[in-house]
Amino acid sequence: MFSGIVEATARVVSIEKDQDNIHFTLTCPFAEELHIDQSVAHNGVCLTVVSLEGQNYTVTAMRETLERTNLGLLQVGDEVNVERSMLMNGRLDGHIVQGHVDLTARCVRIDEAEGSWEYTFEHAFSQEMTQRGYFCVDKGSVTVNGVSLTVCEPTSNTFKVCIIPYTHEHTNFHTFEVGTVVNIEFDILGKYIARLQQLNA
User: Rounded CA gap, 6 and 28, in Å?
Assistant: First the structure.
């Protein structure tokens, strides 16, 4: 379980394909504090640490994860948003994030807003996806590449988020361009409500 408050960015130092899996080795400021079997969110994707060596650690993504997320697009040198699992004895500064990415979205517009930035994302849409809770509501929560954000101006297949300078600088949002593919996790509460409606129909 995560909060969507990114701790740092990690940099990909090597990528190794192993049948349908990919092993990603990364370096980040808290790498030496990690342990084998620990969960870390990478661009919002929960992955398990499988090996450690100094400032570097390795995680493995299986085919289903690679097909559903943007991890398969990563290249050596790319920045990745990382967050260790949430401690249950503190404040929940973001929102409840599972690290289970629902789908990817594409950045379709970036606007500067007098010191902040507005990003618009477009994602796939169908009635079936809506029934599963894959949708946004105005002023609700969404996770973009592991960052907990507030939704603005949602439509059936687009939404906008506003990024303050601190988030822009300390996550990989500053690398985004029109066309960048990001990981999206919709609010878990919306998914439960959608499921209950199905069962009670």
Answer: 12
Start-to-end CA span in the chain (Å): 30
Query: Two tokens at 32?
Result: 């030496």
What pTM, to 2 d.p., does this model score?
0.90
Structure confidence by residue, pLDDT tens digits, 145-159: 999 999 999 999 999
What SS3 string covers 102-167?
CEEEEEEEEEEECCEEEEEEEECCCHHHHHCCCCCCCCCEEEECCEEEECECCCCCEEEEEECHHH
Whole-angstrom distance, CA of residue 27 vs CA of residue 83: 13
CA gap 154, 190 in Å, rounded: 14
Sheet containing 181-186: which strands, arranged edge to edge? 147-150, 141-144, 181-186, 103-113, 116-123, 158-163
3-state helix, strand, coil in the chain (%, to 5): 20, 40, 40
Place of tokens 């050596």: 76
Rounded CA-CA distance 81/66 in Å is: 17
Distance CA 100, CA 41 (A): 9
